[in-house]
Amino acid sequence: MASLGIKTLGAQEAIELDKELMGSGGYSLDQLMELAGLSAAHAIYKVHPPSNGERILVLCGPGNNGGDGLVAARHLWYYGYKPTIYFPKKGKNEIFERLSTQMQKLGIPFTEDYETALKETDHIVDAIFGTTIRPPFDAVITAMKSSPLPKTSIDVPSSWDIEHGPPSEGPGKDFAPDNLISLMAPKHLVKYFKGRHFLGGRFCPPYLEEKYGLDLKGLYKGVDQIAELPRLE
């Protein structure tokens, strides 16, 4: 499936690409999280510069998207923002412990009260993901959806299906973030997305680009870690 002249990936292809990056590509999981979170931070800076409000709420799920969110929060802190983290279910990998320690050393607060946090921020970062939404994230997504504040999702809007986009029922019904940062390549779901769309993950080696039919040459400019893609109509 193609979109905007750039191939989009399905769920299985995205999983296989990640595995190959961590296999023959020589990358570790924490390297991929670091590069993904850096791309996300750049996209957030683009759509919501500190002059629009320094308070950023990062909603993190237990999977790798949560790790991407933690890395993004760290970079945003260095960019002059004041991030707050909601991370109720830490992943089992020790990477999450190290990322949490990094937040603590910078004085970045964690909160368990997402309802109050949603009222005391200027921008919401959705790093939850997961098509099967279990407590407490069902209520979190409902509250996030109801907020009038701008929202940026990392790679996949939470509750969306990678292949088929937004759900027709459940807490994610009608959830549509304002911005999306796709990682490595857009997923099939982007045909349902109407906001500002960025691509990040400027590290895919040419042999994997060729294998997965990705043509990213010339997409990124200068030292940019992200590229904005045209809106789909």
From TrEMBL:
Every YjeF N-terminal domain range: 14-216
Subcellular location: Cytoplasm; Mitochondrion
The organism's place on the tree of life at top rank: Eukaryota
Enzyme nomenclature, EC number: 5.1.99.6
Co-factor binding comment: Binds 1 potassium ion per subunit.
Main localization category: cytoplasm
Positions with a binding annotation for K(+): N65, D126, S158
GO cellular component: mitochondrion
GO function term, MF aspect, one: NAD(P)HX epimerase activity
Protein family per UniProt: Belongs to the NnrE/AIBP family.
NCBIfam families recorded: yjeF_nterm
Protein name: NAD(P)H-hydrate epimerase
